[in-house]
Sequence to fold (110 residues):
Amino acid sequence: MLQVSGEMDLVTSPAVRQHVHDAVADGRRSLVLDLSEVRFCDSSGVGVLIAARRLMRSCQGRLRLILPAQGAVDGSHVNRVLAALGVRRLFEVYPDLHTAVDEAAAPLSA
Fold:
């Protein structure tokens, strides 16, 4: 699991991208990104998420996002941004880590 907090923007997104690439290089084919503490996400952050999804799919992997409906800042900012851009449906989203790692759990609907 990779936990991201604070902001996903032009300055911080490259580090998130690198962590995802490092995980894949280490042989990980399943990755959970905990974005529950991200309070701001701009287009570069969304770009990193879309690229991470593409990378995981290219190696027959699986990317899951933790985006709780309720959080420190009235729910997940990232969830609202993804929905506003019309790309939320591309991701497997779970409300918490327990559900995200449960192979039998269904993702939240978009």
